[in-house]
Amino acid sequence: MSRFATKLVASLLIAPALLATAVAQAHQAGDVIVRAGAITVDPREDSSAIEAAGTSLGGKATLDSNTQLGLNFAYMLTDNVGIELLAATPFKHDVGVAGLGAPFDGKLGTIKHLPPTLSAIWYPMQSNSAFQPYVGAGVNFTWFFDEDVGSDAENRGYDGLRLENSWGLAGQVGADFTLTENVMLNAQVRYIDISTTAKTSFSGLPVEVDVDVDPWVYMVGLGYKF
Fold it and tell me: Which residue spans within the chain are E strands per DSSP?
């Protein structure tokens, strides 16, 4: 092998290590990290029996999934420990009734919510690692608003819809992969404890159901470190 070829091969072998060293100046105390990406709230709802005027009718409430723009804001207290706030554009879900038969079953309406979550996060890897997995735990507040009964549900006899706000715990796992000194890829999965009581009326009778929403929350995006 020629001297030039030998140097070329050596350069190709060394370059990835040099690149990793260059970009692996990961999280340090005082860093501010902003992440943005697609975030999906996937409810794993488990509801009580639906009650009308205090009488159990059976059946259950249903919720569908929704994807929005997710935002994370993190501040590193040390090289390995930080605090993080999860935010997003409002999620919109279809709410339905199932298991009662006509005329009760079907789509009831739509609701919107915001689930801001404040967490402590821990990065176990050394700060010079380009790959930074982490775990976190915190508290969630879910604000329900813009509850709306659809026209079809109104024609079936429903009127009005309200969901109580919720406080609960949240846990997460995630990972950052450093691309440059300031830019990173991010993926994360969360479980959030969300419980609410939904109230409406049917032909003038008060109707309510307790719902454990308890969604899995998935987010993939990019982060920027200041």
Answer: 32-42, 46-47, 50-52, 55-58, 60-63, 66-76, 81-88, 91-98, 106-114, 117-122, 131-149, 158-163, 166-178, 183-192, 195-202, 205-212, 216-225
